[in-house]
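User: Show me an example of a complex going from sequences to structure tokens.

Assistant: Sure. Here are the input components:
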Amino acid sequence: MRVEDIFHQPPPPNEHPCWEDPVLPSVLKRILPESVLQAIEPDLTRLGHDLINIVRPLAAQVRLPTITHYNAWGERIDLLQTSEGWRTLKNLAVKEGYISNAYERKYHEYSRVYMFAKCMMMTGDFHVIMCPFGMTDGAARLIELFGNERMKDEILPRLISRDPADSYLCGQWMTESPGGSDVSRTETKATPTTTSSTDLGAAYLLDGFKWFSSAAEGNMSVALARTGDLASGSGALSLFVVPIRFQSFPTPLSNNIQIHRLKDKVGTHGVPTAELSLNSARGWLIGGLNEGVKTIAPMLNITRIHSAIHSIGSLQRCLSIARSYATVRTVAGGKLLESIPLHMENLANITILYAALTHFTFGAVSLLGKSECNVATREEQARLRLLTPAVKGFTALKAVTAMEECMAALGGQGYMEETGFGRLIRDAMVEKIWEGTVDVMALDLIRATRDGYTLESFCQWAAKIISRSPVKSDALLLLQDVINQLPSLFRENF
Amino acid sequence: MRVEDIFHQPPPPNEHPCWEDPVLPSVLKRILPESVLQAIEPDLTRLGHDLINIVRPLAAQVRLPTITHYNAWGERIDLLQTSEGWRTLKNLAVKEGYISNAYERKYHEYSRVYMFAKCMMMTGDFHVIMCPFGMTDGAARLIELFGNERMKDEILPRLISRDPADSYLCGQWMTESPGGSDVSRTETKATPTTTSSTDLGAAYLLDGFKWFSSAAEGNMSVALARTGDLASGSGALSLFVVPIRFQSFPTPLSNNIQIHRLKDKVGTHGVPTAELSLNSARGWLIGGLNEGVKTIAPMLNITRIHSAIHSIGSLQRCLSIARSYATVRTVAGGKLLESIPLHMENLANITILYAALTHFTFGAVSLLGKSECNVATREEQARLRLLTPAVKGFTALKAVTAMEECMAALGGQGYMEETGFGRLIRDAMVEKIWEGTVDVMALDLIRATRDGYTLESFCQWAAKIISRSPVKSDALLLLQDVINQLPSLFRENF
Amino acid sequence: MRVEDIFHQPPPPNEHPCWEDPVLPSVLKRILPESVLQAIEPDLTRLGHDLINIVRPLAAQVRLPTITHYNAWGERIDLLQTSEGWRTLKNLAVKEGYISNAYERKYHEYSRVYMFAKCMMMTGDFHVIMCPFGMTDGAARLIELFGNERMKDEILPRLISRDPADSYLCGQWMTESPGGSDVSRTETKATPTTTSSTDLGAAYLLDGFKWFSSAAEGNMSVALARTGDLASGSGALSLFVVPIRFQSFPTPLSNNIQIHRLKDKVGTHGVPTAELSLNSARGWLIGGLNEGVKTIAPMLNITRIHSAIHSIGSLQRCLSIARSYATVRTVAGGKLLESIPLHMENLANITILYAALTHFTFGAVSLLGKSECNVATREEQARLRLLTPAVKGFTALKAVTAMEECMAALGGQGYMEETGFGRLIRDAMVEKIWEGTVDVMALDLIRATRDGYTLESFCQWAAKIISRSPVKSDALLLLQDVINQLPSLFRENF
Amino acid sequence: MRVEDIFHQPPPPNEHPCWEDPVLPSVLKRILPESVLQAIEPDLTRLGHDLINIVRPLAAQVRLPTITHYNAWGERIDLLQTSEGWRTLKNLAVKEGYISNAYERKYHEYSRVYMFAKCMMMTGDFHVIMCPFGMTDGAARLIELFGNERMKDEILPRLISRDPADSYLCGQWMTESPGGSDVSRTETKATPTTTSSTDLGAAYLLDGFKWFSSAAEGNMSVALARTGDLASGSGALSLFVVPIRFQSFPTPLSNNIQIHRLKDKVGTHGVPTAELSLNSARGWLIGGLNEGVKTIAPMLNITRIHSAIHSIGSLQRCLSIARSYATVRTVAGGKLLESIPLHMENLANITILYAALTHFTFGAVSLLGKSECNVATREEQARLRLLTPAVKGFTALKAVTAMEECMAALGGQGYMEETGFGRLIRDAMVEKIWEGTVDVMALDLIRATRDGYTLESFCQWAAKIISRSPVKSDALLLLQDVINQLPSLFRENF
């Protein structure tokens, strides 16, 4: 008995991540004008083929980053090295316009839909690239909204560049050890200096310790720091642009920043997440003094959409493998797995969930696109505000369990690393946590409804939708009831 | 700013895995006579302390096993080496009587409850030790039921030994590449020989390729092989005892067995799972010729209970960490996390699920104990038959998602490997797959009801239970209805 | 006491690998006409800077290659993956013209001196690139001498290409397990086929097992195989061109070749060395039938020169570090290490050895250049033949111990991996073994003298050299005496 | 062609490390009285078998130690973990009486010969265990000579214990970054405290940074620190006993010591060598104030003998493999390698060197034994003083190159890690550096001759030896001449 002679399961064929998906084409058709859809079709087609042929094989090269604290001669260097695969993916994502597709606004208010459709297609093979790129996206928006001229001239073009040699990645440093996601307890202090060392404005010196710093390999970060006393809580926080590896700064991490350790995370293994200390690192104020929390809000809304896209994109990939496997695996009697009703019922249930989450998310994406192009109505602005935490929290809540069902649909093969479920699930688990847990989202949802208008206009909109729906019933009353009980019902009944 | 000077979160204190658990004491109190509970109490108390002080720190030493196929001189050796931590855990489990507690039957029909209570306590820190030990348990039962005298004298005492120097581990080799969990397509052939090389009886020579072979480090295995033609399906399969590393056999894997590779699994990293080829490996028949599927059934029932225990034990550990963390983590305003209602509502919901799964599982355990001591009524035998696949499938279906909620209850810290959730979740994911997926369990549940008696007697029993319950209502009708729709409702509504 | 505050040794500055070397400029000046020296000077200058700035930092990316034998679905794939650093180095070496500098013959008979001067400069930072490239060099020479037209048209241009996308690497498969370096015991059989599958000629099918197969990542190999019976020893061996990854062949290793394992070597860690089985792999005859040993000889002579260059280039790098370190390290009394006589005496002794080995080696290189351009006299041809094994064996015998002295010249710092000595020494150790041990070289030296002419002409040449030297004495008599005792004196007294 | 079917070289048989060695038995016979030899013979026999059967297979478990700087919650812990193999070897060495054989003095002045004969036998398989144990040996001697009563009662018995549960390992912290081996530039300061915290005497607080700290896993260390100003050089250094993990101290490394990193060494991979900072670590004076250099001298003399034993023991093992291989490897014509004169001439040359180094070293060992038992004459004391640096430096200078010749004697197989040469050579390379380079030894040799008596008495002794020798000649004059030129001749002509 030679292993060469035994049965080998034919591998499941690769599906096109857009056109062979059961949901994405209908989402695009529903939202986009036909002209836009026709315009982007060739790019989506090409991207799908590139994902299968070029990107997917890079998976084996994505490994843990490493940190070397000292050189041979005893000098502290904090040399951070990411893996070959990760660096290749970053360059490919820049070239693909992962962020710039949104900022070039070639398709006006539909640009965000186009951009996030590509992001979703890329999710399965890009190993959580949305982490640094989502933050970069948010930072670009902040500079667009609040940056000074110099920032708009020097930094913004690099954040949205399509040229890897020229582009900047940006991190977001909020979390500190005592407060966790509660920024009101931020301890990092920012001290103003009198002289302006660059055209970015008068520099502050930041001192503190940031506990979860993703994109530690990036070129810059935005960081919350205290510009008043601790008792003032989040009312004395300001937001700063902090260079890490600017072309105009001499050496890596020379901005008085130390990497204490790389986090030993359950997933997102290509991404270097660090504990950092700022030891009088220079930073430049963005937005108003003591208005840090308000200033950073648009960034958080963008990263939360990225998070939702990561959840549904990960589920998409798992479901695709499971669906594809059912077309090549034979079971008793020589029948294909796809002919077994019980098996297909399972996949159908997952598909329904996947469809719901995808339409839900792209609803918010569509509103974001309108908002950024200033064509959103007041009602749409309010709806976007309400839906953003809901989309982020709900996709995170539902996607991983469904992915685990897809894994089980391959039996023992699903539990092998080579089929990819393990990595996808480990990575997707972070979405319940990153950028705010489900509880944090639920509380943000309440906060969004406090103005009186947001909730009311949402209910009116929902009533209209429901009245148009074939399944009318008493859903409207139920909806009102449900909303009244937010957020304790958030988890189970949203 | 020195890292030494920053805030360090005090670590969550360790809870006693039995007495500080919110469910296990009440389960034991409900099932066990007071005399038995008093007798085992000191052992459970000591075990809890040993788990915290001795076993838990071993985690860092549990690593992937390695295989060396050739020695320096080109000879094929297939040298399998497991990690220090894994070897230590195995020895500790043997000394703890992981299996022998059940077979010594010191507490008669309650021995299984005692034994599985210990197994459950150990789950969180024993890194899927239930995999090889569960199969060893099943093999012990097979020999008790069907083994010849020589097997009972030579092998059984080692399978249930408390002495690591003397004990045997046993694997279970069923899965083959073409058929997966469908044993009817087993290709491995067994050819009888005329001479008896040992007192175990006349040997067969087995030739084939086993695709998932857990416990590849073990001393023996039970293996299904074909003793008739392929067209006869599972009706021409017999069961064999196959030595790997018997004391009476000269060298490792000398029984004409080759390890082709170790599986690259998503979890259960300490456990060596292999692809094996049998190249005229000697095996001895256990049970009747061509009755392999029937013979192995008692083993599968036992490993399924082990699987359920692993699911609930893993959830127990995750919930314990989350509960404990809430007692030391402060949030805004200096309040402890355990004083935040929204947070505690989440933990309470998980606890309700955990309680339900634990009572459910130990109900089956209690029946197993009675059955093995021959004090089970016919109705109890039938109920055990019905519940075994349900317990296995349902715990697997529900535990992991709840564990992921526990992880998120620590925020970013939960996603760090050091807090342990990642490993526990990766390991527990296997339970949806190992020993039969949820679909396989559902189909087995139907099979169990085919005799007419099993389902009817179960409904009568359930009706009696429900009628005693304060929430009488129309639950009985619902139950009948639900059962009629088995198994399509299995996943969602069981 | 913070580590940031303690003393850090300033790192030793980088010396230019040619112009700051104490020996290489004088070698080039002695051998090359001034016009050639002027012509190549800018290239050597640039290369030196590139080595320091571009190539040296790649060291951390050179790691062990990996082999994956099976894909997820059980199919044998033997996927060989080399490290990022190694792949980058290979591409850089191709672009640098590592081989093509010799074959373009831009500087006529001096092309080899130019080419090997560059190879020597590159040695310290190219991690044994000479292994696959040296064999590729030899293969190019074989095809130049013995290849058919098709080989000259299709293969030769790729072997000497400067374009990484287009170039071929070639291995050399001689060693088998029973015979080691004794090719007379080659067991691999070549069976002729009647049909010609390509224009390379009628194919043979090769079956056998090659024990040390360097450049397993290459595109082709030359392999010795038996075309007569075993009793005929090396008289029944022929040489074959064996494709591995030709552009005209479909998939990696598709030529019926299996990689059984990658060798676990003491050094040369970037290089994938494999145990290979040929299972009816196609090969094409090069050179005459049953004339394999004679045919391969020019290849061996070239790889032996590469070996010598690797020995002296490795010593050059170690000596450079030690010399440079002495200019920055202060000792008692604040004096620099370079002012301590005892220390500098050690370095001077090593430098004398290094100078001798370098002049010795480039003497042979110069003759090789003449020979390849057909301007060598009969006496020079004979001298090249005699010196080739001597140069290879003697540099290997002397270099490593001198490198270890350089390591010790940095004290404890020399024993740290970061300073590079460990890697250089481990790699250089292979030169005592690879392409024939010192004993094999000694025996080849005897073989070279058997024709009567070679030894006599060498002695006359040597006598002339000595008579010109200021230290005339009775060296001539000694020389005669020494040569008479070859090779038992080879090791101790050459 | 299956790999199972190809030729496998039979592995070289294991030789008994004492009785089958070509030199050690004659050394023991020459030095020891017959009664002692008879008494120790069974122990040496047993040890040899244990080395082959128990210790040698542990090699695969000796790996790099790891350091974890922070726990999950951000607290600095500097958790040092050594590999399973290394821990097992340490325990075996303690049980074997690696150190205690010398201090129990069961065989009076011959105890050191007995003890070091065992150490030498163990060298090949104990992975540089001499590093921490040699320092522990030296520390035991220091306490025997200079310790207070409390140190003799509490510490000494643990340093020479045979019980792993009870024994202490001791490091030696001298080297600092600025001075390297030049202790006169020691910067670590010791500040006296007024109160005595333990019975060891009044504590000092040590502050500084130690650059090479071997045995970082140990229980204590002896450390040089400055008790006067820097200008006083080595005249203001004192020696301190510094606890790391005493049973009376609460937690690992609690004595205000931080491990900044583990050294990335070329060899000695099992041994944790660290960069340490002392941040007011408590230490207790041993020997006189400001007499640190004088106090530590006996320790250095002992560690230097250990170093020499490591050099010759490593060579012994390499030579044994090469010799053994020659008995099983066949070459052309079916002859064994051991029948090839050229090959055996090489091995004979190495054996002569090995014999010389072994007799040389054990001469010093014999004198050390006499000295410690107070039976050495003044002339023998002087000779021991003179020979100690010579033995250390000379064995280091000669052993590695000879080991590399042994490696090459196996051809390509010697370059494979599995045959062990690589590890042995990497480890032995440290002996040219550790405890003083050859230059430092040479300078110490001069220092030893400064008293006028030492050199003269040595020459008289040497003259006597030479006059007894059959090869009288004018060796005596030569000797006188050579000694006059010490140490410039040390390296080349000793």
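The lines above are the inputs; the final block is the predicted structure for all four components together. Chain B touches chain C at residues 2, 69-70, 74, 177, 211, 260-261, 275 (CB under 8 Å).
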